[in-house]
Amino acid sequence: MKRMILAAAMGLGIAGTAMADPVLGTWKTQPDDGSYAHIEMQKCGAAVCGKIARTFNDGGEYKSPNIGKTLVIDMVPNGDGSYAGKVWRPSNDKIYIGKMNLSGDSLALRGCVAGGLICSKQNWSRVK
Q1: How far are the Cα atoms of 7, 10, 19, 76, 83 from residue 4, in angstroms, in the given order?
Q2: CA–CA separation, 85 vs 110, rounded Å?
Q3: Where are the domains of the chain?
Q4: What's the rounded Cα separation, in Å, for the pair 20 and 102?
Q5: What kind of fold does domain 22-126 have according to CATH?
Q6: Exposed, middle or buried by CB within 10 Å (0-12, 13-18, 19+), for 108?
Q7: Distance between CA atoms of residues 125 and 106, nearest Å
Q8: CA 107 distance to own-chain centroid
Q9: 126 neighbors 25 (Cβ within 8 angstroms)
Q10: What is the CB-side half-sphere exposure of residue 87 using CA atoms within 13 A?
Q11: What is the pLDDT of residues 17-26, one digit of tens each?
C-alpha cells in the first residue's frame, strides 16, 4: 500500500513538472538604445505574465522605476508554442495586443495595433 501511494505521488510530481509551461523563467529583452531588462515570466491563473525583474544600460545594472511592473499581461498558450494576450510598452505607457512565439531559448514578442495589422517586435533570449 505504501509503495502504491509513493508511486502515485511520484507520478503526480513528474506529471506536474512535465506540464510546466516552457515559457516560464527569466528572459532578456532585446536592447533598445543600449538598455535592456530581465523579465520574470510566471503563471498568472491559466495564463502567463511577465514582470520586469532587473534593468541594465551601458553602465551596468540600474534601478528603474519600472521594476516590478507587469510587461507581459495574461498571455494564454495556444498549445503550439504561440501565445496571445497583451503587452505594456513603458516608453509610452500604452497596452497593446500581444503575441508571443517560443522556439527553444528564443521568444519572439509582438505588440500590435489595428487588430494585429501593425506590429512592433522584439526577440528575447532565455536567461534561466
Answers
A1: 5, 10, 22, 35, 38
A2: 10
A3: 22-126
A4: 14
A5: Lipocalin (2.40.128)
A6: middle
A7: 5
A8: 8
A9: yes
A10: 22
A11: 446 899 999 9
Each residue of 72-113: pLDDT tens digit? 999 999 989 999 999 998 888 999 999 999 999 999 999 988
Residue 1 cell numbers, joined: 500500500
Task: Give the C-alpha separation, 58 to 28, whole Å.
Answer: 15
Q: Which residues contact 27 (CB under 8 A, 6 or more apart)?
A: 38, 39, 41, 50, 107, 124, 125, 126, 127
What confidence score (pLDDT) does residue 1 get?
41
- Please name the amino acid found at residue 51: K
| Residue 16 pLDDT level (bands cut at 50, 70, 90) | very low
Confidence of residue 61 (pLDDT cuts 50, 70, 90): very high
In degrees and rounded to multiples of 5, residue 66 shows phi and psi of -90, -5
Q: Work out whether strand 118-126 and strand 25-28 pair parallel, antiparallel, or are unpaired.
A: antiparallel
Asked if 28 and 125 touch (Cβ cutoff 8 Å), the reply is: yes
pTM reported for the whole predicted model: 0.80
